[in-house]
DNA sequence: AAATTAGTCAACCGCTTCATT
DNA sequence: CAATGAAGCGGTTGACTAATT
């Protein structure tokens, strides 16, 4: 007898997970008018934890111990099968969440530093509510923790300052938007898109490096034999293990050293360098790099081609520096503030002006103005944030 | 001291994305 | 290319605690 599946929303069948089939209750089966078939009316996916006997809610220390012991011994492997093997009355998803948000050994807990607050605010302005991407730039903080901190602290703080936490604009600025400003807004949006794309790629890079680090951690610290299902890194990119490879192919990840092989991921190509100089790896892939990546990096690292070449990896090192106060506070933060532009304009390497920079075809005049405007904007925010938390009481 | 309100954050839910077959 | 399994992600909830009335 055929079984038809009807979703509440037409056209959503593609997204339906087969879990529905095993979770759907026989009680909601209905016979169709002709009685020729059963029609299953899907009322929404049943949560995996609804299965009989599975516990929900806060974890007990005993459960934590079981989960920790199992993962240290065997790695997590398949989360779905883990609870049974570990002797836990939990669904795999719950176990994964508990591990990633609480039990993982590389998690830092406690108060956020001012540097971390700054980073969150700045990244949020660029990325929006993409917490996992933001979390990759805050070593040892989980996306969940950052999200909670944003919703309970930072958002309110910005609101009290009269800054819209969504647009990161002052309310007055939003109200008095003129033609010029809307043009700037368009530029800003444009820039944000590129930055967003770049940061997304960075996030991926950081995630990959974190995986490698975890694998390294398990191999060295746990020193266990047998299958290492946890942290198994499966990817088509040509990564090598930490501490292999040579010299300039090494990058500092948030928690470990990551090495690349010859077929470098596009993140570390010498971006911003004229095409002729790009193929130093005898690898023509670089010329096929998406233009957006090239633009994003050239606009955010330096407007001076020679500087880009000289420091082509610096921004990655800054972002991935294991020390948040150095890497994020000075590196990425200043990068976001447009410091790099300012630096390149003021150092002896190039006495460029806005127009000459724009003329070089790397940063347009409007983009330069964008940097200047937003530099001021960010400085004003950071000055306020810097004065917290002690000053915040008086301020608010 | 009890009741109420507000703040915090761990955990859940449902959707999307990715990898594999 | 579609189906499937698994994990990732962001929004939301609700239990717990602290502050206030």
Q: Count every helix, treating DSSP H or I runs of 4 or more residues as helices.
A: 18
The spatial strand order of the largest sheet comes to 1-3-2
Order of helices and strands: EHEEHHHHHHHHEEEHHHHHHHHH
What is the rounded Rg? Answer: 25 Å
What general form does the structure show? elongated
Helix content: 40-55%
What percent of residues are in strands?
5-15%
List low-pLDDT spans: 1-47, 217-364, 384-396
State mean pLDDT (0 to 100 scale): 53
Structural class: mainly alpha
Distance between the termini: 68 Å
Instruction: Specify the oligomeric state.
Output: single chain
Major sheet details: 3 strands, mixed
The total count of strands amounts to: 6
Whole-number total of structural domains: 3
Account of the protein in words:
Its main location: nucleus. Keywords: Developmental protein, DNA-binding, Nucleus, Repeat, Transcription, Transcription regulation. With 396 residues, the chain is mainly α. The chain has a three-stranded mixed beta sheet with strand order 1-3-2, with no helix packed on it. A three-stranded antiparallel beta sheet has the order 4-6-5. It is built from 18 helices and six strands. It folds into three domains: 44 residues, no CATH class; 55 residues, Arc Repressor Mutant, subunit A (Orthogonal Bundle); 201 residues, no CATH class. It binds a DNA duplex (21 and 21 nucleotides) through α4 and α7.
């Amino acid at each position: 007898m055929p079984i038809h599946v009807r979703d509440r929303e037409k056209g959503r069948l593609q997204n339906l997970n087969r879990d529905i089939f095993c979770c759907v209750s026989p009680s909601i089966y209905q016979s169709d008018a002709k009685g020729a078939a059963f029609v299953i009316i899907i009322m929404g996916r049943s949560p995996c934890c609804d299965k009989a006997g599975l516990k929900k809610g806060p974890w007990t220390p005993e459960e934590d111990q079981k989960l920790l012991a199992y993962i240290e011994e065997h790695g997590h492997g398949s989360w779905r099968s883990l609870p049974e093997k570990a002797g836990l009355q939990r669904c795999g998803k719950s176990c994964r969440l508990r591990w990633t948000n609480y039990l993982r050994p590389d998690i830092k807990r406690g108060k956020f530093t001012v540097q971390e607050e700054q980073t969150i605010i700045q990244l949020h302005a660029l990325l929006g509510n993409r917490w996992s991407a933001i979390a990759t730039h805050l070593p040892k903080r989980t996306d969940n923790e950052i999200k909670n901190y944003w919703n309970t602290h930072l958002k309110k703080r910005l609101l009290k300052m009269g800054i819209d936490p969504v647009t990161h604009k002052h309310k007055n600025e939003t109200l008095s938007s003129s033609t010029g400003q809307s043009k700037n807004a368009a530029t800003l949006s444009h820039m944000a898109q590129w930055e967003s794309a770049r940061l997304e790629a960075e996030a991926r890079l950081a995630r990959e490096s974190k995986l490698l680090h975890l694998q390294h951690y398990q191999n060295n610290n746990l020193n266990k034999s047998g299958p290492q299902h946890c942290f198994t890194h499966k990817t088509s990119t040509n990564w090598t293990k930490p501490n292999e490879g040579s010299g300039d192919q090494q990058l500092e990840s948030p928690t470990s050293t990551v090495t690349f092989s010859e077929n470098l991921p596009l993140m570390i190509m010498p971006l911003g360098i004229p095409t002729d100089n790009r193929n130093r790896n005898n690898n023509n892939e670089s010329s096929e790099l998406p233009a957006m990546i090239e633009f994003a990096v050239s606009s955010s690292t330096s407007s001076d081609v020679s500087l880009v070449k000289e420091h082509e990896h610096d921004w990655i090192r800054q972002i991935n520096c294991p020390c948040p106060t150095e890497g994020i506070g000075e590196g990425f933060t200043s990068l976001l503030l447009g410091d790099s532009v300012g630096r390149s304009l003021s150092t002896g390497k190039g006495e460029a002006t806005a127009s000459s920079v724009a003329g070089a075809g790397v940063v347009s005049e409007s983009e330069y103005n964008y940097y200047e405007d937003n530099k001021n904007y960010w400085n004003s925010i950071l000055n306020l944030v810097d004065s917290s938390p002690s000053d915040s009481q008086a301020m608010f």
